[in-house]
Each structure stands twice: as C-alpha cells, then as structure tokens.
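$ ./design --mode recover --in tokens.txt
reading tokens...
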C-alpha cells in the first residue's frame, strides 16, 4: 500500500512538472506565433511588390502612397533584416530567396564613408544573413563596411561623427542613434583580430555616457564636439520636442545600445547604464499603461499627440535581452512590460490588415514630428525591431 501511495505521489509530481507552463504563458506564446505567421504573409506581399523595382527598398507608406528608397537611405538594411528574422523563424525557402535578393541591394554601402549609418545598413542585413547562412561573401562585405565606418572616427574627439550637414552650427555632431552602429565594429574586432575596432567602439560608448546623458539618465539627441578640444560645445535636439526633452526613440536607442555593449564587452558600467535608462523610461510619468510611448516624453501635447511604435519595438527587443543580465525581480519587471508591449503591437490597433498599410506590419510610428515628416505612419525599422523582439522571445521561452 505504501508503495502504491509513493508511486501515485511521484506520478502526480511528474505530471505537474510536465504540465507546468514554460516562462511566458501559452496564451502569450500563441500571440508571438500568430504575429510571426501574419508578418510573413504581409512581408512576402511587400517583397513581391518591390521585386521588379531594381534597387528599391521599402521605407514607409505615407498619405496613401508607397515611399521607397535606394540603398543610400539610412533605413535600407532593415527590410532585408525583416526577411532574415522571418526566415529564421520557419526556414521558408521563398523568404530566403527574397532575403538574399534585398540584402544584395544594400551591398554597395560597404564603401560608404559619408555617414555613420553603415552599421544599420549592413549589420541588420548582411549581419543577419551571415549569422543564418554562414555565407563568406557576407563576411567580406561586413569587414569592408566596418573599415568604412571607422574612417569617421577622429582620435582627438574619440567618437564616430554622425552627420556632415549643418556645418555652420555643428562642428562634429554625434547623435544618440550612433550608439547602434558600434555593434558592427565590435563584431569586426572579433572577426578580424584588429583591436582598433573595439577601441573605437569603447571610446565612443564611454564618451556618450559622459556627455549625452543627464543625471536622470535621459539623453540629449545631438551633442556637437569642438574638433580641437574634443569637448562638447552644443547639446541639442533635432527630432525631439526641445533640447532638454527626452525624445522617445533616442531613449530607446540608448537602452538597446548599452544592453548589447554589455553583452559584447561584459563591462559592468554598460549594464548599469542600460538598467538606469530602463528605469527612466519605464517609470516615466508620461509613459502610457501599454508602454507604447508618445513620440517625446516631454511634449506638452500629451496625450493628444502621436505615439511611436518604433520606439516601443526597440525597447521591447532590448528589454528581452536585458532581462537575461539582471536579477530575477528586474527580469520579471522587464518581461511584464515586454508582454504588454507585444500584446498591444500585435493587436488590430497597431498591426495592419493583410495587404494594407503599404504591406508594412505595424502602424503608428513617428519619424520626424517637428518637421511633419513620417508622422503616424509605418516604418521599416519598427517592423525590424518588432520581429527581433519576437525572435528573442521565442528563444527565451523555448530554452
């Protein structure tokens, strides 16, 4: 009798273990899976639409019209990256065909030295392609691109210059977005064995902490440096509400940037920076309950002003990764936020109907509100970081 009772208890325990849901409810995982299924259908419609438009890549859908670009636009690598994340999800050969096609359309940017966005252009496209296929040609493109990006580094300033325009105002402008391009340099340092790539990236990251961030861990958008002294001479905004405001996508870039910088360097300062940025954005009094931020945290028009889904997607992707570097309490907080964000983004409020929205996945992003440019529209980088967040969630929950 005693043996029977013991066997019964063991059976109950085993049953409980087998039926215990993985981290993340099965309901939420079904949201993630459904989001992937829709995204693939929508993105294949996009791929077919631009297939015969030589050299063109989707940018947005504005005023009822498709807006595309050639590879020179800073967003050119995001749509190929969308396709790579979709291919990673279910290995659809049709998606692979288009991922290769649109990635090739960006290749000439490996020689670009007149802007800092080579990292976005190449690492999101060729970087993901290399990760998933091991194609040696992709590696060569990335190494050439890293060398091109490195030409924008001035040793006495210690940062990579962002823009070359507005020279009457800015001597050596560096925008918070530029933190994202360092990942290409860190990859190149490991791949080539040339430590100068890493030295540039670390210098840029350190000086950005010192000069871009305020005591509350919000960041300026643009800091221009004196080319002789290497010290800041202007701290401003270009796309935010004001020089002192917290432009939402800029805060998201910083969160994402210092998260991967910690992953790549294991420097605890970068982890603390990422955690402090997360605390600022997640606990900001103007952050909505669904965690899809307004385009700027400090615009006086809140709540009667556009949201920025792209900022939410960048934050979500960063928080999934950051949750793996922190204690259980913080990780739980981050993942609850991510779940709210993804559920909202995957809802009809933010996800387009099939074939609509210019065949972009998400609605309601904001590009340059002060210029009335790309306001409340789909953006290719919103779709990219949305799919990256979904990919990271699947990997996290399926361990």
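writing sequence...
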């Amino acid at each position: 009798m005693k043996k029977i009772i013991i066997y019964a208890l063991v059976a109950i325990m085993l049953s409980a273990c087998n039926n215990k849901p993985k981290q993340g409810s099965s309901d939420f995982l079904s949201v993630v899976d459904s989001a992937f299924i829709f995204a693939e259908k929508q993105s294949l419609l996009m791929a077919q639409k631009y297939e015969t438009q030589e050299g063109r890549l989707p940018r947005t859908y504005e005023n009822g019209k498709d807006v595309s670009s050639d590879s020179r636009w800073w967003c050119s690598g995001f749509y190929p990256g969308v396709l790579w994340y979709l291919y990673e999800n279910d290995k659809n050969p049709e998606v692979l065909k288009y991922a290769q096609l649109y990635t090739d359309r960006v290749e000439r940017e490996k020689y670009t030295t007149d802007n800092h966005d080579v990292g976005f252009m190449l690492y999101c496209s060729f970087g993901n392609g290399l990760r998933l296929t091991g194609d040696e040609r992709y590696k060569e493109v990335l190494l050439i691109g890293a060398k091109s990006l490195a030409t924008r580094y001035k040793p006495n300033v210690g940062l990579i210059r962002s823009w070359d325009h507005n020279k009457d105002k800015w001597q050596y402008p560096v925008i918070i977005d530029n933190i994202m391009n360092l990942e290409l340099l860190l990859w190149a340092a490991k791949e080539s064995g040339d430590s100068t790539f890493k030295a540039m990236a670390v210098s840029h990251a350190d000086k950005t902490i010192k000069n871009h961030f305020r005591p509350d861990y919000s960041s300026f958008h643009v800091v221009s440096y004196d080319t002789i002294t290497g010290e800041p001479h202007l701290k401003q905004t270009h796309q935010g509400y004001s020089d002192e405001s917290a432009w939402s996508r800029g805060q998201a870039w910083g969160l994402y940037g210092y998260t991967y910088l910690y992953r790549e360097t294991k420097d605890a300062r970068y982890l603390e920076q990422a955690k402090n940025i997360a605390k600022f954005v997640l606990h900001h009094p103007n952050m909505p309950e669904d965690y899809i931020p307004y385009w700027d945290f400090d615009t006086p028009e809140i709540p009667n002003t556009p949201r920025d889904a792209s900022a939410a997607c960048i934050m979500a992707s960063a928080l999934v990764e950051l949750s793996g570097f922190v204690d259980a309490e913080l990780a739980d907080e981050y993942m609850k936020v991510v779940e709210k964000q993804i559920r909202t983004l995957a809802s009809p409020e933010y996800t387009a109907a099939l074939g609509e929205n210019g065949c972009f996945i998400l609605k309601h992003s904001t590009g340059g509100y002060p210029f009335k440019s790309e306001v409340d529209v789909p953006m290719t980088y919103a779709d990219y970081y949305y799919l990256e967040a979904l990919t990271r969630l699947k990997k996290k929950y399926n361990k």
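exit 0
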